[in-house]
Amino acid sequence: MKNLLTIAGSDSSGGAGIQADLKTFSAHKVFGMSVITAVTAQSTQGVFAVQDIDPEIIKKQIEAVFEDIPVHGIKIGMVSKTETIKIIAKTLKQYPHNNLVVDPVMISKSGFDLLQPDAKAALIEYLLPMATIVTPNLPEAEEITGMKIQSLCDMKIAAKKIHLMGPQYVLVKGGHLDGDAVDILFDGTICKNYTSKRIETKNTHGTGCTLSSAIAANLGNGMEVHTAVESAKAYITTVIEHSFAIGKGPGPVHHFYELYRQDS
Is residue 252 within 8 Å of residue 20, measured between CB atoms? Predict the structure, then answer.
């Protein structure tokens, strides 16, 4: 069994963040480990407060894992402060690693800033060049590139601009556009489209975290990037299709639908 590490924030409602990452890892038959960067007071209705973890504790968490356990892949999610970003980058560089997926979490669905405005430059400078693949949605891609994205053509331009910032691959997620859900992967040479039907549901809490964690798990399990993205895209489509409501707002995706179906 491969060991996957998520470096991200905690979601008290369990639908996104560290909790979604660990569920996704388990669904992909890898052992999940975590470094918590922040604690959020969060529900299906939104994010109400955030407390960042001290950078030194983040550093110690990373060191504790790497000094003891082989790490076959890493997913980085919510890293809200410049100091957090710098310590993660500096500490990871102390250890051999590969299969690094960066999900540039910036704003929650409810509009809460999960990346402090002054930390965007640090994310671009320190984490994007380390990434095997970076997975922005359209608002995040707009923040990173400074351009407006309103079409598939715009998505391709944005992917190429982000690629120039250093990641090996860029996956721009098109879920915010109308029509089918089309994601675009740029490998430095060509753009490849991954299309799935749009599922009409409000229960999409944690979809970005889940997709990036699925890609990381697939890479850790030995898939090459294009195959890892294709498999993760199929997984996220299934778990959105079988998502469910548990609160007053958007509910979570069903991370273990396939497992539960086998047991029924």
Answer: yes
Active site residue: 81, 209, 210, 237, which one?
Answer: 209
Annotated catalytic residue 14: no
- CA 147, CA 219: separation in Å to the nearest integer? 30
Catalytic site includes residue 207: yes
From the candidates 173, 210, 220, 233, give the one annotated as an active-site residue. Answer: 173
Two structure tokens written together for 195: 């299309």
Max intra-chain CA distance, the chain: 49
Q: Is 206 a catalytic residue?
A: yes
For the ranges 127-141, 158-172, 187-201, the lowest mean pLDDT is seen at 187-201
How far, in whole angstroms, is CA 11 from its chain's centroid?
14
DSSP letters along 179-197, please?
SSEEEEEE-SS-EEEEEEP
The question of whether 90 is a catalytic residue gets the answer no
Annotated active-site residue in 32, 208, 220, 251 = 208
Q: Please state the pTM of the whole predicted model.
A: 0.95
Catalytic-role residue among 206, 210, 220, 233: 206
Give the strand order in the sheet containing 133-134: 46-52, 31-43, 3-11, 73-76, 100-102, 133-134, 169-173, 181-186, 191-196
32 belongs to the catalytic site: no
Is 208 an annotated catalytic residue?
yes
Q: Catalytic: which of 37, 207, 210, 237?
A: 207
Angstrom distance (rounded) from CA 137 to CA 199: 17
**Residue 204 pLDDT exceeds 80:** yes
Average confidence (pLDDT) over 76-88: 96
Instruction: Tell me the β-bridge partners of 182.
Output: 195
pLDDT in tens, 147-170: 999 999 999 999 999 999 999 999
